[in-house]
Amino acid sequence: MRFDDHRVVITAAGRDFGRTLAIRLADLGAEVFLSARTLAAAERVRDEIRDRGKQRVHAFACDLTDPASIRDFAARVGGQTDHIDVLINNGSRYLAGPDLLSASDADVVDTIASGATGTVLTVKNFLPLLLNSVKPDVVTMVSACGTPGHHRSDAHDSFYAAKNAQAGFVDILSKRLRPRGVRVISLYPPDFDNPDPLAEEWETTPRHARAPLAAQSLVECVLFAVSQPRDCFIKAFHFEQV
């Protein structure tokens, strides 16, 4: 699988799974436009990728709780390319704590804004660039917390609220954008292991039936979905929780 002809935008790529996606997609030839809340975080990942000999990578600051920052991110990407092929909505603040009273009002607002409002506004602002592509895909990392009846996470109630908002958004989006040729693909993973893609553990992480879900498998799901012919619309990936 190669992605040399793909231009990919990834939000919250300064660390964790966003960084993993950026590194793996760049390794497979994609031109990557990555963002993080701070420019310094995005530039660190950009430099890691360039140190691997992949030069088609660009770093931007984007605060998903700030509409102006999202607009600026999309405008800056649009200043460098006339289209993007894949938008990966990876950004969403995680907030732990099963007690509703454990979080401040500011933390609740930030959590819901980054996951829910941030995802909607990111798609809205990048949609013109996606519509210029002959193979546009929107990929959203939701969470098992966004599925009806899920209760096995220790995430805060506001994180559940954000993820259910994301789930509702991508569900209607898939129906409304399909006639325009845009596939909307969503992943609903439980908690998963995310080994460093630049470390030996990337190759040695257990991936047997009783092991926790690994980031390697999530990356492979994303790559599989976006590489399918355009008549193959994989709407969602749901995962059994160990």
Automatic annotation (TrEMBL):
InterPro entries the record matches: NAD(P)-bd_dom_sf (IPR036291), SDR_fam (IPR002347)
Record's keyword terms, sorted: Oxidoreductase
Domain of life of the source: Bacteria
GO molecular function: oxidoreductase activity, acting on the CH-OH group of donors, NAD or NADP as acceptor
Keyword Metal-binding in annotation: no
UniProt-listed Pfam families: adh_short
Database matches in SUPFAM superfamilies: NAD(P)-binding Rossmann-fold domains
Membership in a protein family: Belongs to the short-chain dehydrogenases/reductases (SDR) family.
Protein name per the record: Oxidoreductase
Organism: Kitasatospora aureofaciens
